[in-house]
Amino acid sequence: MAGVIYRVSGPVVTVQGLQDPKMYDVVRVGDQGLIGEIIKLDKDMAIVQVYEDTNGLRPGEKVENTGAPLSVELGPGLIGSIYDGIQRPLDKIRATSGDFIAKGVSADPLDRKKKWNFKPTVENGAEVKGGDIIGEVEETSLIKHRVLVPPTVSGKISGLAAGSYTIEDTIAKVGDDEIRLSQKWPVRVARPVVDKMMLDAPLITGQRVIDTFFPVAKGGTAAVPGPFGSGKTIIQHQLAKWSDADVIVYCGAGERGNEMTEVLTTFPELKDPKTGKPLMDRTVLIANTSNMPVAAREASIYTSITIAEYYRDMGYSVALMADSTSRWAEALREISGRLEEMPGEEGYPAYLGRKIAEFYERAGKVHTLGGTVGSVTAIGAVSPPGGDTSEPVSQNTLRVTRVFWALDASLANSRHFPSINWLNSYSLYVDDLSKWYADNVGKEWHALYQEAMKTLQKEAEINEVVQLVGYDALPEADKLTLDTAKMIREDYLQQSAFDEVDTYTTLRKQHLMLNAIMELAEEGGKALKKGVTAEQLSSLGVKDKIARMKYAKEGEIDAYSKEVDREIAAIGGMEAAQAK
Amino acid sequence: MSDVYYKTLNQVTNVLLFVEGIKDAAYGELAEIRLEDGSSVTGQVLDSRNGLAIVQSFAETRGIDVNRTRVRFLGTTAKLSVSTDMLGRVFNGMGLPRDNGPKIYSEESMDITGSAINPDAREEPSEFIETGISSIDGMNSLVRGQKLPIFSGSGLPHNRIAAQIARQAKLLDNSEGFAVVFGGIGINSEEANFFKKEFEETGALDKSIMFLNLASEPSMERIILPRLALTAAEYLAYTEQMHVLVILTDMTNYCEALREVSAARNEVPGRRGYPGYMYTDLSSIYERAGKIQGRKGSITQLPILTMPGDDITHPIPDLTGYITEGQVVLSRELHRKGVYPNVDVLLSLSRLMNQGIGKGRTREDHRGVADQLYAAYAKGKELRSLTEIVGEEALSAGDRKFLAFADRFENGFVNQGFYEDRGIEQTLSLGWELFADLDKREMKRVKEEQISKYGRWKSA
Fold first, then answer.
1. DSSP per residue over A92-103, as a string?
2. CA B429, CA B442: separation in Å to the nearest integer?
3. How do residues A296-324 score in pLDDT, each as one tens digit?
4. Does B149 touch chain A (CB under 8 A)?
5. Is A54 at the interface with chain B, CB within 8 A?
6. Residue of B nearest to A538 (CA)
7. How far apart, in whole angstroms, are the C-alpha atoms of residue A554 and residue A509?
8. What are the 10-residue block averages of pLDDT along chain B, 460 residues in total?
């Protein structure tokens, strides 16, 4: 027996007489069958949040309970797809309902007809348990999709198939359970793992300010708060493009439609720097733009992280970009307001902090049930009102994330991009990762990075003095420090996302670049002692060379760097001729 | 449509009517509220339950009583009849003619709330619109399908700038269908007349549709008006294949109306009393800009808002900036100096600029010139505040050049006439002229080959 609508108030609908309603069951609301989720039960009434526009919905229309919680379908075909917040494939919806999103449309998240070539990796009769890998299909040129036993299933495997199958075909039996290429998982529940591990390797992003100064570990969490126009989205895009994760899940929650279009048009053309394959072959997109229903925006974050966990369980390193978690929090606030819940700070529900913490806690590097190691790195953009991070979403986020990239409006206004403020940002992974950097980049890396950071901090101090006494009154050594800091800022930290070469810098090149700047500072310091002035040093031609080092291609960097080194070494000899 | 008039009104507040005994009013359904004297106002269902409908009146509830006022539900959500006959006409905030012309009758009527464009169907905006204004074209280029608001303040010439853009924008290229849809939200009659006169003078009136809600008219109409304007724009763009420029002024009045209505509904307030859903609500307006694959038309939005107290962190500009693809910020300081248009280029931004400029679109050095102008001007301004403390003498020779650059940039590049239409080539050349007074070594944002091609330095 179907229930009937008793009350409609925006996205919140009260339903009477629903059969056997359970919390978080998905229901189909009204004659159009809008998708909703039960969020509260009150005697014979079920309160439902509807994921679609409820204009035109009337009391008395019928409501049906699907009896299952909001789930995602996991299987081959996820990669390269674009979904809305509740995993409806936007391209298929467009094919059936046109350029504008119509109400009540549904489409299968994964292609039911497509056949995948399944290769088993276990034998009939083997004992398997939940999470074990029993075979694989080639999903894209970059991703082998490992077929997992659903977490709740275990037993002896039989009837193992091999060859071409759709996601609905049975490819094996475990005990009495039929195994298919796809499985479902409720989005609000974290997929189980054996345990979480210590983090010891960085997510290499090719972005100098991140990799050098504020790295995020694979399996770690990072927050990117910043006012509008400070380049949050560009940073998220850059990470999605260049970071060395195996799989990228990009969630546009409540953001701009044209930005998602940009991702859709540029990603298929971009090549993965390691493999040369299209970046789309490792990317899943979730796009619930700001004008799409607010309840689906709330769900989009969970849909995204569940997909990320699924690939983690196959043993991949996954990076999840959520842009923006503030819009997700606002969706929570809006629904909470409709439920007439007692508001906490700034109208946000009192459980905001818990929800944010729960989300980031689903990140991590893990031993999977199947015995491999996988990771989910979660990077969330935060859009604080007026850029003021004292507001609840920023504060709750900073409490749980371990990297803070503080975007700075004044840097953005002077077109210093990425506008990550080097004095306010931090990464708590620096110590955990120092061994990795020493082994993989160079032993002197840590000292080099610290020296550069010290120079930047010194610059801030000296600048305060300049405000009082003027530049000319500074000692020569301070002038040199200012010059060096300027080089670090302009020639190293600034990086153009739009320049073909500069958009991505390998760690090796980062090392050479930073080394050149600090080497110049050191040689310059020695020269000062011999009476050379800071102004003379400042007019050296080698500075221009270092400035243009970022545009040197990977293949040319060694030769380029040698030449720079040679010129720096020559400073030692210049004193006799130039000093007074 | 129902012929039943309900006389079961039980409670009336400022703008809300509680009608009892209603079984199935649709959420968002329109209602006719008929007063005792035979006059009627329109309302909309805000909350519907079995036995009760809460109707929001679009006009004030003056004269409504509990005993004799009757309510009829119209069986439809708010729709607008659309046709090309609307071009050249002026309508009010309910979509009715306010120019004494005939009502629009059309087969086509569209729901005014619109539907979200499927992100998969959007086409990336990439066609440069030349506005003839250097500070916009050169450094914050507008492209077709973009939404680029003007953040202004009381007493600043935002209307003139908007009018100049509407007049000069090469979107208004006659080779392709173009139209201007103007939405005046809670503006005064002088502002309305200014735009009317502007459109008349440039001959754009026949190609424009105006929706006007004057300051004295009901707040609820301010909430509906931008939706009417955009519905008309969508019809022109996606059915009639025209390139439409939508000017909405003043979005601050819109947000004030939203707050007023939200307060009347007893909703939990968010920041500064504005409703918590203001972001979502604004996005349902701004996101209606764009281009769709396979359709020729486009909607470019130029909303104008006045920042209360010139505060860019105020919720209205703040939430707008998070949705729109950049912003053009006007500066009171430049206005005082007599610079027109008083665009503060450091605070302004066009997010879609890169897609619209460069080789084959404008010129290959466009990005570099823009970045260099920003950097040099930012430096000049920083030094300007430094000299206030330490004096100009304390600056190095190189720094003094930047200081002079900032002045010349404001007076020679940003400043231009109300009727001065600068081509993009001219704008970029102006930039190179300004660079010539700086050291060539400082040119870190432009490529070397561009320096040798366009640089104006006298000798080596």
1. HHHHHH-SB--T
2. 18
3. 899 999 999 999 999 999 999 999 999 98
4. no
5. yes
6. B441
7. 7
8. 82 87 90 90 91 88 87 91 94 91 91 91 92 95 95 95 88 68 94 90 87 91 95 95 94 95 83 88 94 94 95 93 94 96 94 89 92 91 86 84 95 96 94 93 86 82
Residues in chain A within 8 Å Cβ distance of B28: 54-56
**A277 plus A371 within the same structural domain:** yes
A47 and A174 co-located in one domain: no
What pLDDT, in 10s, does the model give residues A241-271?
Answer: 999 999 999 999 988 999 888 888 888 888 8
Question: Out of B77, B270, B354, whose CB is closest to A55?
Answer: B77
Instruction: Report yes or no: A291 at the B interface, CB cutoff 8 Å.
Output: yes
Strand, helix or coil for residue B338: coil
Q: What is the ipTM of this complex?
A: 0.86
A483 shares a domain with A424: no
Question: What is the C-alpha to C-alpha distance for residues A297 and A198, in angstroms, rounded to an integer?
Answer: 32
Structure tokens at A130: 């939940």
B180 and B245 both lie in a single domain: yes
Residue A156 belongs to domain spanning: 112-181
Give which of A276, A399, A314, A294 is closest to A139, Cα–Cα.
Answer: A314
Please report the DSSP string for A317-357 in residue order: EEEEEEETHHHHHHHHHHHHHHTTPPB-GGG-BTTHHHHHH
Q: Which of B431, B327, B336 is nearest to B376 (CA)?
A: B431
Whole domain around residue B63: which residue ranges?
9-77
Give yes or no: residues A276 and A242 share one domain: yes
**Are the beta carbons of B120 and A547 separated by less than 8 Å?**
no
Distance CA A518, CA A520 (A): 5
Last residue of a domain, one of A133, A150, A181: A181
A44 CB within 8 Å of a chain B CB: no
Report the residue from A6, A103, A330 with minimal CB separation from B279.
Answer: A330
Asked if residue A544 is part of any domain, the answer here is yes
Q: Are B53 and B82 in contact (CB under 8 A)?
A: no
Q: By the CB < 8 Å criterion, does A287 face chain B?
A: yes
Token pair belonging to A278: 């299209």
Surface of B (39-98) touching A: CB under 8 A: 46-50, 77
For A68-105, the pLDDT digits (tens) are 999 999 999 999 999 999 999 999 999 998 999 888 88
Q: Is B385 on the interface with A (CB under 8 A)?
A: no
Exposed/middle/buried for residue A4 (C-beta within 10 Å: 0-12, 13-18, 19+)? middle
Which pTM was predicted?
Answer: 0.91
B29 contacts chain A (CB < 8 A): yes
Count interface pairs A-B at CB distance under 8 A: 219
What SS3 state is found at B85?
helix
Chain A nearest-CA distance from B148, in A, is: 12
Phi, psi (5° rounding) for residue B245? -105, 120
- Give the Cα separation of A36 and A25 in Å (integer): 8
Neighbour-count burial of A41, counting CB atoms closer than 10 A to its CB (0-12 exposed, 13-18 middle, 19+ buried)? middle
Contact A149, A128 (CB under 8 A): yes
